[in-house]
Amino acid sequence: MDINLNFIYGHLPYWLFIILMLSGLFIVVSRGNLIKKIVGLNIFQTSVFMFYISIGKMKGGTAPILLEKSANSSAVIYSNPLPHVLILTAIVVGIATTALGLALIIKIREEYDTVEEDDIQKMDQKDLKKYNKKNVLETNS
Amino acid sequence: MASEIKQGTLELVNHLPILQVITPMLLAPLLVVLNNKTLSWLLSFLGTLACLFISFLLIQAVSDGSIITYYLGGWVPPIGIEYRIDAANAILLFLISIISVIVLIFSYTSLHAEIPEEKHTLFYSCFLLCLTGLLGVVATADIFNVFVFLEISSLSTYVLVAQGAYLDRRALSASFNYLIMGTIGATFFVIGIGYIYMATGSLNMIDIAERVSQLGDNKTIQAGFAFIVVGMGLKLAMVPLHVWLPNAYTFAPTVVTCFLAATATKVALYVLIRFVFSVFNYEDSFVNELFFLLLMPLAVIAMIAASVIAIFKQNLKKLLAYSSLAQIGYMLLGLSLMSQKGLASSLVHMVNHGFTKAALFMSLGAFVLNTKNVYIKSLRGLGKSMPFTSAAFVIGGLSLIGVPGTAGFISKWLLLEAALETGYWLVAIFIIASSLFAVIYIWKIIEVLYFSESSDSYNEVSVLTLLPISILALFCIFLGINTSFTVDVANMATEILFK
Amino acid sequence: MKHHLILKVITKFMVGVIVLFGLYVQFHGDYSPGGGFQAGVIIAAAFILYGIVMGLENVQKVMPIWFAQKSAAVGVLLYALTGVFSIFFGFEFLNYYAISPEHPKHGQHYGIILVELGVGITVTFVMIAIYYSFAGRTPRLDDKEW
After folding, report:
1. Number of domains making up chain A
2. Of B37, B87, B220, C131, which alpha carbon lies 20 to 30 A from A61's?
């Protein structure tokens, strides 16, 4: 038992990132409820946001805003703003994905009257037999 | 950017790389503002035509091996975003642009049968956004920009696939599954980018390549590479990660299926190629082992298994979707050989398969316009009543198999040569076996088309529908006879990539 | 929530304040923390609050669905046209120096304001459009069911 506590504590953000990422991925894969899948996807994406922000952080670093020139502004330690900017874009992408996923779920619920993947698959199997006989383009009506 | 700012000096010609991407991007919101059905078709058609013209100029400019760079906002690379066009991405820009033009001609007649009229404007707007994303992924040399454009194209693709729900509600669950898998893929890709940024502190491909070669054997870079391979594997439907593809292709509207089958997976594969050669060190043993031990077996499994599954499918769209999986296997195989010839065959196959599969899906779409049914039984006797569409389908099918004189033959021959040259004769046998399976499933359709009688008789589709189909069929033959265009550009591209 | 007088009064008061704060964040975004994304979400929050408290029909009188959709597109156009503007004057896409070549710093300033305005407009109306498309589809709940 030679656990280096410093190794665990020193990389705390990364451990959190890994735990969040895996739990998010697990929810996406294991849950049959479509809403829960989207929630899992969100957790998964959020873990990546955390990861990016933690790599930009400097110990004792301030916000990267240009100070007055009178002070010794060049000597100030500041956090790297680039990962934050990148992740702002990724957050927007995440919002768009979530909104689209939820919109699809609403449509699925209107069509199938359920949000459980198993039920949808069962109904699809029934559809398959029906569509085999009918004309595809006319089933709309 | 220094302080001495003079009057702008750039001619319109210098702006080609950005004009390629922003032409559809400007039109997409414009269509929503104008909100007129016919006008939106016309504008998107003209826009894609402009894209085609620009990509043609670009491919001419880079076919001698030169590289065009463009700094967005005038910020010099490691800080700013750079667009970088060389032979490898010019050929893909050309493929995407020309397919979008052809698909839009087809959509003028076919979209009415599949999507209600009032949604057409938004459909075209989404289509243009998807086009923007695909072109942007290919044009940019900034790895985070790749992610952003990839998500622009993916998000609009999910919407486009879901439009099939007006005919078949299963399009919704297909689109949802695609969304889940695609987003997981994209997120893996972002994690990979994060690892690279952590290790190198840069996002520009050229800059990273320099720093990676200085770093040598670095665990962070390797982890980042693994994440990127998995993420792109999801996007390009590498075999164990392919489950979204068959349903998405089957239930999407025909126009969307044509466009996606011809471009989307190829763009993801291009990103993988670009990362292996222009960002990472392709001579690195880690990269080589990953490709030899993981991607090559997966590619072979894709070629064989997907072809076998395709034989048993009755739904023709699904059959062609599984055949797409097998063809993606060929492209991946060409890449995983890690030789100049293999990569060239992979690039040529991207273009050839783009035209081939678009021709197949489009002529199938024309059949469906008449018969209203995608099952194989419905094609009985259509060879007589729809001779031109059937002929186009046969040409596409022959090209898919790889019969001499068609586009598919060229790329399969190159791949076979590359496999034998590197000494993987077993792989060469698998390539031939997979082609034989393709003969079976294409013959199955041709038999129904020409050698069975039907009580129903249909008229040939209108000229406007036939025009894009015949253009694609002609391309299948033209690229099989005149190889100077594709093979030369691909050879130039591999030289640049292997530099 | 038709009968909650306190909520209605507070909302009417707060909507203006929220929009004002959103505009503050918007126009100070070029040289201090803030900008289009944040401002857009804040301004959209005002409309969504109004919609939740006063009912969807009432907020759609102020902000019809078609207006939200088209304005979102206009925002993107504003962003893209700022870039195209530079192309016409012989600079790179989105090179703000083109806006005022004699005073490069002013050019940067105006460019960022224009681009952030485009972002702000798009984010505001996209958020409102998302709210509309979700809120318009749920069965309306009675007050007793809350």
Report:
1. 1
2. B220
